[in-house]
Amino acid sequence: xxxxxxxxxxxxxxxxxxxxxxxxxxxxxxxxxxxxxxxxxxxxxxxxxxxxxxxxxxxxxxxxxxxxxxxxxxxxxxxxxxxxxxxxxxxxx
Length: 93
Hints:
Blueprint: E1 6-10, H1 16-25, E2 33-37, E3 44-46, H2 52-57, E4 64-68, E5 74-78, E6 88-92
Antiparallel strand pairs: 1-4, 2-3, 2-4, 5-6
């Protein structure tokens, strides 16, 4: 589940190196990332099929990396069949 659900994290000067390693790991290796979105929003690359080394070298501040869930991320789940807000449960991964 942690490799399927993703969290969009914006690249800053503080997390650039960590997110670069997630991009190099790709979508198969945990912790990794599934998608790379450029800061202008015009391109969205799937890291399963793209050239991860080139994408990791071209990461700029402001880009968005959709990374796997890691420890202490908060996830909201809705209990089926009910769709009202009282059925939403919060879990810490």
